[in-house]
Amino acid sequence: MKQDVYTGIPMGVATKQANNNLQRRKFLRKSVTGAAVVGLGSLASNSFASALTAPIFDPDKRLKLVNTHTWEQLDVVYWSQGRYIPDSLLKISHLMRDHRADESIDMDPKLIDDLHRLYGLLDSNERIHILSGYRTKATNAKLRRRSSGVAKFSLHMEGRALDISLPGRSAQQVRTAALSMNAGGVGYYGASGFVHIDTGTVRNWSGS
Q: Taking the model in full, what pTM does it have?
């Protein structure tokens, strides 16, 4: 029987071994390629699953404010990644403080959210003017002596009310937008050029 000149193995045996080696190499290549495809498929599948399970957050909430008594200004994001930002809420509460007594209270987050929603409805980039935010009992009593329009148990004393105006928008426009929210109390003071909003029961009234 003839022998392979390189291996010295009989030709028939050498050919059979060569065929076996070739088939084995083809099998290994397919196995490696298949594993790679499966690996990529798993990676894509995992990425898709992560995208499906990743939390979806509302857009950041930003307010641009100015206190018309102290002229302090604030441009702040107070909500991000699905939660309130405590430091931002503190800054907002400080700006909305009782400037007469220089005292503040934690303003109702719902009131802040209502203000943000109202700001969006009015489609403005101007700063919201804060005429009155928190009031101490002493301040509220003092204002009541001056005006019959100040409630004895005003929600201002609980950090749940604001008197506001917005440059470029009339008090009537602010009132109309606030009423459309159906979110709480809305007081219209057209002659004075401001609107009252609060987180009390849904109601509305007009003052001077």
A: 0.73
